[in-house]
Amino acid sequence: MMFPRTLTQPLISNGYTLNPENVGWLEPSDPTTSRRLLWQQYQEQGYLWLKGLLDREDVLAFRRRFFETFRETGLVASGSNALQGLYAGADAKVLVHPNKILLEVVRWAAFEAFCLSAPIIEFYEDFLEGSVYLHKRKIVRFTKPHDPKCTMPHYDLIYLRGGTERVVTSWIPIGDIPVEMGGLAYLEKSHHWGRRKEAEFNRMNANLSRAEQINPYNPNMDAETPIGADVNALAERAGGRWLIADYEAGDMVVHDPYFVHTSTVNNDAQGRIRLSTDIRYQRVRDEIDPRWQNHWSFDDML
């Protein structure tokens, strides 16, 4: 078991500093635990932090490949080891727009193979008790050091209402991501609160067309901050703490579609770019949201 440690600096998310009393630590899970116990943990916690599910060297190889390609943007420090993903600095000249590279990466056969690697598929076919479908819309995210913009607090079903609610997200750190690098923070047991919030949205959207009901930008919602940006206020409303972790290459977090999460500022002392991917799986026989059957693009509004 991993034990909490003292943080070296405050955690900041979209301009809000997390109060220490609103911060806790994720509980790790052993991937070899029985399906019954993992499912019980998932239902109780809203997540599983699966330690070492993936081969560490495979994850680091993908990180190296990504940053070798990402050098084209001018954002990777010249002459540095690609595996480190060192940021070139705020004064770096952008040579190629980063989204151009991301649009290519999410279409790589190598990325598809990474998402369909045996440890992931074997886990999900056991966990979901059937053949699984990988959503085509897959996202690779990078976060520069000291960038104040973070992932806004949300739960995934806000953007996935057009299919089954039994969809599961994998968040995978591509490299070691200690807390100071700004990995995901999860709002403790907020999957219960998220279900109540979604029921509220459903009541508000009842008179809208089906297309508008599943649209996160419909007239009754502000998809930029669908449940608010103030992480401390959300902790009070949902009655839980923001759970953080020192993630390592090889880990995979599995979270419920109603589970609220956000990210914090990357304040890595070494100046490394944070890299991660979030991908979704479900049983293939369940209803699939058609909007997620296309590759990610920066203007797809999801």
Q: Extract low-pLDDT stretches.
A: none
Order of helices and strands: EEEEHEHHHHEEEEHHHEEEE
Strand content: 15-25%
Give the tally of structural domains. 1
**CATH architecture assignment name:** Sandwich
Largest sheet: 7 strands, mixed
User: What's the name of the CATH homologous superfamily?
Assistant: q2cbj1_9rhob like domain
Can you tell me the CATH topology?
A: Jelly Rolls
Q: Count up the helices.
A: 8
- Proportion of helical residues: 25-40%
What is the name of the CATH class?
Mainly Beta
Mean pLDDT: 96
Gyration radius, in Å: 19 Å
Number of strand elements: 13
Task: Explain what the structure shows.
The chain has 302 residues and is of the alpha+beta class. It has a single domain, classed as q2cbj1_9rhob like domain (Jelly Rolls), CATH 2.60.120.620. The protein is built from eight helices and 13 strands. The chain has helices spanning 35-45, 56-70, 98-105, 109-115, 118-127, 190-204, 210-213, 231-238; strands at residues 12-13, 16-17, 23-25, 28-29, 47-50, 132-134, 139-143, 168-173, 184-187, 242-244, 252-255, 261-263, 274-283. The strands form three sheets. Strands 4, 5, 6, 7, 8, 11 and 13 form a seven-stranded mixed β-sheet that branches. Strand 4, helix 1 (35-45) and strand 5 form a beta-alpha-beta unit. It is globular.
